[in-house]
Design a protein that fits this description.
The protein is of the alpha+beta class and 88 residues long. It has two helices and four strands. It is globular, with a radius of gyration of 14 Å. The chain starts with a strand and ends in an 11-residue tail after the last helix.
């Protein structure tokens, strides 16, 4: 999950978290799909879930850092991921 700049969804709530789940895929595949939701701080879904398909280039660039998939999905929806700020 990634924290995002808050988005106000009228009559529903404030979305603050992007939840991305990579759906099962075969090792021979050259792309993958995700299921995504935007949640409030309380964990309530404020934007109905949707799917995203990684392009072949995105899939090839994925590597070991799974957070890049969050970046792809956020960019496709115009969302801005905010960096984690350590609490002192």
């Amino acid at each position: 999950m990634a924290k995002i700049q808050p988005i106000d969804v009228p009559h529903v709530g404030i979305g603050t978290t992007l939840e991305v789940t990579v759906l099962p895929f075969k090792t021979s595949d050259v792309t993958a799909q995700t299921y995504n939701r935007i949640l409030s701080d309380e964990g309530v879904e404020v934007v109905p879930g949707w799917n995203y398909t990684l392009s072949e280039d995105e899939y090839a660039d994925w590597g070991e850092d799974n957070s890049v998939v969050d970046d792809y999905v956020a960019a496709a929806k115009g969302l801005v991921i905010v960096p984690d700020v350590p609490v002192e």
